[in-house]
Write a structure and sequence with these properties.
Helix content is 43%, strand content 16%. The chain is built from 31 helices and 31 strands. Strands 6-5-14-16 form a four-stranded antiparallel beta sheet. A four-stranded mixed beta sheet has the order 10-11-9-12. The structure holds one RNA strand.
Amino acid sequence: MPEPASSAPTPAGEGALPKTYDPAGTEARWQAAWEAAGAFHPDPSAAGEPFAVVIPPPNVTGSLHMGHAFNTALIDTIVRFQRLQGKNVLCLPGTDHASIAVQTILEKQIKAEGASKEDLGRDAFFERAWAWKAHSGGTIVGQLRRLGYSVDWKRERFTLDPGLNKSVVEAFLRLHEQGLIYRGEYLVNWCPASGSAVSDLEVEMKEVEGSLWHLRYPLTPLEDGPTGATGATGTAGAPAAAPAPDHPNDHPIDHPVDHSIDHLVVATTRPETMLGDTGVAVNPSDPRYAHLVGRSISLPLVGRQIPIVADPHVDPAFGTGCVKVTPAHDANDFAIGQRHGLPQITVMAKDGSMNAAAGRFAGLDRFEARQAVVAAMEAEGLLVKVEPHRHSVPYSDRGKVPVEPLLSTQWFVRTEPLAARCRTALDNPAGAEPRFVPERWSKVYRDWLTDIRDWCISRQLWWGHRIPAWFVVSETGGVITEATPYVVARDEAEAWAKAEAQFGTAGQAAGQAAGAVGLAAAQPLQLEQDPDVLDTWFSSGLWPFSTLGWPDSGAADLAKWYPTNVLVTGFDIIFFWVARMTMLAGALLHEADPNRTGPDHLDPAHPAAAAPERPVGDRDSWIPFRDVYIHGLVRDENNRKMSKSAGNGIDPLLLIERYGADALRFALVREVAGAGQDIRLDYDRKTDTSATVEAARNFANKLFNATRFALMNLGGETPASLGEPLLAELESEDRYILSRLVRTSSQCAELYGSYRLGEAAKLLYEFAWNDLCDHYIEWAKPRLFGDDPAARTTARRVLARSLEALLVMLHPLMPHLSEDLWHAVSGAEATEFLALQRWPQPDQQWLDPSHESAFQFGIDAVRAIRNLRALSAVKPSEKLPIGIHTPTAARQAFVVANQGKIARLVGASELHWEAEPTAGQLLGIVDSDAQVGLTVPQQSLDALRERLQKDLVKSEKEIAGLAGRLANPNFAGKAPAEVVAECQANLAEAQAQAELLRGRLGELG
RNA sequence: GCCCGAUUAGCUCAGCGGUAGAGCGCCUGCCUUACAAGCAGGAUGUCGCUGGUUCGAAACCGGCAUCGGGCACCA
């Protein structure tokens, strides 16, 4: 016995064995053993087809929930299966720094201490952040280990570690060089709570009950109206001036031009933004207002003269058909403003309060300002009405407050060229890249890549990758503005070099070095690194290659394992993550060329360079993963998505402690049969129990006991020492289980390989519980318990083979249990691992459906007898004479050959067989060709009669259906011949059975 | 508004052209020396509704209903 298996089954004779499996000790032991042996630390130069998965790095925001356990169970099942296929498997773990989420947590903590991050300063803040990372990351890694994740911990990465920072900087630099990153002032989603810009994806629309305020905007009288004011909108006048004469419908006759209009009414959900209005827009084809286009409005409360412009965006049917235009605070207005050259006036500060441009409202919070503006308008008699209005408001995912569209200078990734490349890959005629499983998600992915908007990647945060751009602040008076020139560089030294080359005057380098030495240069060069950091998803987007060593293309891991084989993740991050990875890979690895010069050249001396890896020239092989397996979410007992924020998450460790990691894993995977569908976990919060996981735990225990039984009956032998079963010596149940084994091993491999993991789990469950335990072992017991050495050896061989193969196949799903039991059964050294064995290759000769069906008759006959016994009043323990009646020679032979086994299984004092039943027996029907009979006192026949009646009704119903079908000439004419034949056979069978049933009923009276 | 799922036994879900399955639960009986976390036997469904295609539909197509999700969004 291997030492690690202290609580594992031990061969008979070593004293009392536990009757139940105790997962806790076993799981911890094997996790330690695997890791100590480096079992999952692959060598890129080793042989074997590469198979790589990078795990979705969990955020270091606390601990993992059931969704992570689910993802882990799926990935680990896949990679363990591939390892059993003999591939050189890398499964790379890591965690994500989650800028905004972690910073939010930390700031909350700091605030609770009565301070701010500015009070602490960057250095002290980072100390806290890294301490937090160590704590949370440690918890997470501990949880992943506890699940038995077969990842390579030596390659564990963190998105903010130095290696990944190098990738991030390099990626930024190259994208910038390619013109795919730009900086500029645009309207961005501003989260006042976190004080940062966020991307479109981090904004969630929420329906709220708001109000629609109708405000009166007086027209500036013509004589006062500085006609020059309309000059800026000159372009707008042209299309709006006269409705096209060839579109008479555009000019309804019941809208006579009203020259008495002296004001317009606009409707808004955000009255406070009126302070920043720079125009009012109407639809160009709206006859009510066409004549006013070009006139001016005197903006109330502010007094600014703003033009009336004509813009097709305005829906004449909504409200009054007049829209106030606030280009600096609304995306649509921004676009209108651009089209008409309207100024952009920002009236809010970055903390969500009103700024100086808001005049007397300055300093008020945006929501206070809303009330104040409404009150002021009302006081001036300009509030026409207020209507309740249900509408969507953009909320910040993290900050949980409405985002403010705000003009701000930020960095952006130009996404369209990247998205176009991804769309092309998806349209690859040789097969979509990546291939989504289930396929329907590719549509979601494509839709998002179509009409994509640029990606704002800068964040006004501290925790994250600092943007590798240095501003030449000496060019703009020592401050950073939108106009400040900058250089993008790998580090500060390179930044200085670049800046000098572009802007340099002699001496600034010395100035930098010496600091205090003031040179007489009129304008010494001053550099200042951008204080902002990058969106976390920018670094996550590099994950499949940054973790493998990119941009160092001499990296052996990159050469061996890129592109990875499959990405396994939830549908909720297809946009955030999957699409970002493919887009960034497209920009950074698309041109991958082994001959390129510079730091990326592949050193021909490196072993990876010579290894015959997958062809680099493969079309679109830059796509970082061949398959994307999208799984559902874990929902709670009330069908709600489990999440931290909803507070309904379940710590997987609770269930692991109660049932074991293998049980939890098996339960999660078994539930996933319909790939991509959400799974519901029936978790009882009061008792911390789950029937689903409990069932899996019971399955684990069943396997444990089956192995215990085997060990007690293999006489200390192992599959290897016993040798292969010999075909000539096999008995019915041997033929049955071996044939089932051949089919199960190939079906199961097919299911695992095509990500139908739930089906694989169910298949193995049935094979183990039904075929092996219920049927094989029970039928083989007489030989195993008997004293015929030859027969016993054959049964031992078959049992040992089948059980060992089962444990291998089960290993991806229940790694610890299978590893433990495999050691016990195989007698393998403690230094050997099931995890590194090969998928079973049972002898194809064993496959024999005719033997399977022959044995199935035995199963059916036993069941029929047991059923009959249950109906009779005979005590279960009482042995009695039993007969099996069948005219078929093969079946008679089967009964003869298995007489003792069957007698044992049905509690027969004597088992006889005859073609026809003898009189005086209580008879049960197996099928039209076989009956079973008990010799019992004629009592309690009512139950039997009832049963037979029921069967007869069923039979007759079947006959009616089948006969009806066959009577239809179209059926006989059009259905395939084999279907018709089958139908006829079924009918004959049903008729024969009905005949027997009637006979029995007749006898019973 | 656009797109996508789901609707099958009491519950959770498979099945996706040949006439309905599993697990749990339920009923009955068993401490049968691997396992009561077990064994044996059993019951349970007009497969959401409605048209159509087909010899044949739970499955394929159209419509409807209910539930859920995603995207977009007019002040």
